[in-house]
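Work Package 4 report. The design task specified in the project plan requires that, given a folded chain encoded as structure tokens, an amino acid be chosen for each position. We show below one input record used in the internal validation round.
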């Protein structure tokens, strides 16, 4: 049996923003949600691929999903699901 699909409690669109803005927005969102809630992040800045995992590790949040997507025009996008610890 497969696991149920994860759903987010809040979504952040940080597309087009550069470091440190995506992580700062994630930090603000995490502060507002309850423990166990999931924050979904969409980003275009490649630095989020190391910034967000480090953020989770240092602050005790769970990185549920980290994926890199490419659209039909070969633009990269980064997608994350973070559970507040």
């Amino acid at each position: 049996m497969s696991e149920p699909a994860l759903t987010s409690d809040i979504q952040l669109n940080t597309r087009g923003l550069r470091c440190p803005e995506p992580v700062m927005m994630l930090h603000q969102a995490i502060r507002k949600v309850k423990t166990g809630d999931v924050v979904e992040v969409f980003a275009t800045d490649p630095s989020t691929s190391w910034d967000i995992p480090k953020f989770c590790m240092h602050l005790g949040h769970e990185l549920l999903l980290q994926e890199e997507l490419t659209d039909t025009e070969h633009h990269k996008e980064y997608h994350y699901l973070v559970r507040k610890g």
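Helices lie at 21-32, 48-59. Validation will be extended to a larger panel in the next phase.
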